[in-house]
Amino acid sequence: MFDPLPFGTDPRGRRTDGALIEHNWLLGSMPGQGKTSAVRVLVAAAALDPSVEMWLHELKGTGDLDPFEQVSHRFISGIDDESIAYAAESLKMLRAEVMRRAARLKKLDRALCPDKKVTREIANKRSLHLWPLLAAFDELQNLFAHPKYGKQAGEDAVFVIKIGRALGVFLILATQRPDKESLPTGVSGNVSTRFCLKVAGQVENDMILGTSAYKNGARATTFRPKVDAGLGYLKGEENAPRVVRTYYLNGADTERVAKRARASARRPARCPVWRSAAMSARSAGTCSPTRPRRSVTRLPCTGPSWPPGSPSGSPSGGRTPHRTRCRRNAGPGACPAWSSRQAASGAAAAAGRPSRPRAGSRDPLPGQLWRCRS
Fold first, then answer.
1. Could you report the per-residue pLDDT of 306-353, keeping only the tens digit for each?
2. Could you read off the pLDDT of 346-356 as tens digits, one per residue?
3. Residue of 18, 55, 129, 351 with fewest CB within 10 Å of its CB?
4. pLDDT reported for residue 97
5. Phi/psi at 186 (nearest 5 deg)?
6. Could you tell me the domains of the chain?
7. How far is CA 213 from CA 190, 210, 242, 357, in A?
8. If DSSP codes are grouped into helix, strand and coil, which group holds residue 239?
9. Model pTM?
10. What is d(CA 59, CA 35) in angstroms, rounded to the nearest whole number?
11. DSSP one-letter code for 10
């Protein structure tokens, strides 16, 4: 995340990277030109970084970003008023988060934070709560053009774009109607990275790429509909826009990336909402269904150890007969992961008979946790 991420290729087939940290993205095009696919590439790259917190808002309602719901702290997919209100609330929360981070960053020691901006070292210190926060809004025009929520959402977005960059909060904004009504000038004028696919005219071209981009030769109007889908002008840290074709992730590839991110990051474990629910479930003797990994708790063994004469439960005494209990159930008999081999071992231990594990046994060693097989 703190290094440039693969985004696409140039006309010669060379890889083109795009930076997410300290950058806000604006993507625009006509419908069907690959705008959402470009957003998906950026979100997939961010999802593979365990330190990133993601808020995703797909305001078209077609489920293009649904695979990433399992690794998102906030997620919505829809075009109704409830979905629009949820996205507007997210921008309001982001504004408050930026203010909190600014106060927190100000108190940090100069030795840790000399430049007063979020770095990899600061992000890895989980107690500071200053990890990168990515918020993506697809079909943004449905939010900014809303008669009830649009005005305030636009003001919040401008605030976050202007101040949140150095604080680890950055936005990915995608729209298919880049005009004054659906894209505030404060948003289009302050983003640092722009990607313009096929658009209809000069006004839309300059709304995405900046003033006079059309006159200077960056003309996304020349791309062919459908044929040049995924092809656009990328304008980032370099002043001169360059033609880039984005990488393409189909549905199956997107699912694989999301599952890999879910397996490696376990993001819900740091979500305060999940944490409070998990603690309540633990006190009630049940396991939260949203926990990314169920485990089995090892109980102390009451029988003799193997080999005979070694201290019971001692790691140096070899493998010991043991009993396990699933956290999700009241006792070992109710756990579906309770295998016949484990049950026999537990019965032998309760009867006072040593039960030597057979060679190649997959029973856990003392102090280990096993994933519940249910």
1. 344 444 444 434 433 333 333 333 344 444 443 444 555 555 555 555
2. 555 555 554 44
3. 351
4. 96
5. -65, -30
6. 5-266 (3.40.50.300), 294-371 (no CATH)
7. 16, 6, 12, 73
8. coil
9. 0.70
10. 13
11. -
